[in-house]
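Usage

Read records sequentially. Each one opens with the input sequence:
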Amino acid sequence: MKVLGLMSGTSADGVDAVLAEFSGRPARPRWRLLASVAHPYPAVLRERLVAAGQGCPLAAAAWLELAEAVTAAQADAAHACDPEGQAALVGCHGQTVWHRPPEPGRLGVSWQMLLGPHLAERLERPVVFDFRSADLALGGQGAPLVPAADEALLGGIAGWRALLNLGGIANLTLLPPSSGPDRHAAVLGWDCGPANTLLDLAVHRFSEGRLSYDEGGCWARQGEVADDLIQHWLQEPYLQQRPPKSTGRELFGADDLDRRLGDLTTWRPHHGPADALATLTAFTAAAVAQDLSRGPQPLELLVAGGGCRNALLMEQLSRRCRGLRVRPLAELGIGDAQREALAFALLAWWQRKGHPGSLTSVTGARRPAVLGLCARPAL
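and closes with the structure output:
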């Protein structure tokens, strides 16, 4: 079956779309990528989404208009990736605007903005969406959901294999070896902490709105890393918390950036913007390295997401993840903007097949669940 996958992540910079074909056993399908497109959000829409994700109050009518704009952007990305309408099914993650993990005494909740039936009507085919709710209802984190797809699509090697996504948030998958005593171990996965959220907000602020990200890490490369401050940050509760865990802009957003810049002023009174960006870049790598040091030791770290194009961040990962071979996931044929869209195409296919899409070892839910709701074009 040909399936279209649409993913718009925490960075809120646009929609990644892939057209993929799946066949065979759901647990280990045969698959191939047929097409992919990275469709950026208009600048005004991105600014509205980032503001909404930081808790900016909106009138009810404004929320509806924002949902309409997000749905229209998803439809545009779908048409750009699959202009001939080959896909029989669409999997669309929607745009996360708020995520609250489970807390003692109450379930977690998460809002992925999308008008699913509207998108199904515009694309004239079924759309699977709202992927997190079933796992959250079972006491899970509702995220990350990509590790199950990593296991099915990539599989293991002779030792543990780690996959890192550097989107707005950095999240990890650990795949057990294909042989040896750990071959029956559970797949692991969690959100490490910030990747591009704090960096992009800082660049936007320091450039007075002229830039939205630090291309290649060039600005940060001009600064000096405050390693002692990073070691202090690494002791924070979320970064010391054991998986399962998930997070987003709610924890690592504008208020958090203000606090960290205040810390930097205290620790380095004469710092400049480049020093702040250098420290935030190294902080992302240090949080990942700290998490990797606590679990099974992988042989390699495959990196995807927008942060993969930040050369300084990749260098920091290589330096701090000692003993690991760090390389782009693109070397295995899945581009840095394709991995998550491909995962949600697979999750939609699994929903059609009635195959569970969640891993209790990752989300902490009481049991696995078939994920997503299916909206069909009106008859």
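Summary fields computed downstream for this record:
- The chain has a mean pLDDT of 96.
- The first strand starts at residue 2 and ends at 8.
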